[in-house]
């Protein structure tokens, strides 16, 4: 009977170690996801600002009569989507 109790205790300890390891992996995964999401948002904001700058330059090009440049800009924006 004593042997069975030792075996149960050994299995219980092993289970606790594995649960701790899983928790550590979950925490690392969550940290990586948060980092990725922050970087993704940074680049999405940067793309938006660059598109706004391009739209401003496009308006200036229209004033200068550079309609072929405006068409090229609009095609590039459509291709991105």
Write a short abstract of this structure.
With 81 residues, this protein is an all-alpha fold. It has one domain. Helix 1 runs antiparallel to helix 2.
Structure, described:
The protein is an all-alpha fold and 81 residues long. The protein has one domain (2-80). The chain is built from two helices and no strands. It has helices spanning 2-64, 67-80. Helix 1 runs antiparallel to helix 2. It is rod-shaped. The N and C termini lie far apart (69 Å).
What brief labels describe this structure?
81 residues, mainly alpha, 2 helices, 95% helix
Share of residues in strands: under 5%
Number of domains: 1
Radius of gyration: 29 Å
Overall outline? rod-shaped
Oligomeric nature of the chains: single chain
Strand count, sense and barrel status of the largest sheet are: none
Average pLDDT works out at 89
Helix content bin: over 70%
- The low-confidence parts are none
Total number of beta strands: 0
- Treating each run of at least 4 consecutive H or I residues as one helix, how many helices? 2
Topology order in helix (H) and strand (E) letters: HH
Distance between the termini: 69 Å
Structural class: mainly alpha
Write the layout of secondary structure elements.
Elements: H1 2-64, H2 67-80
Helix pairs in contact: 1-2
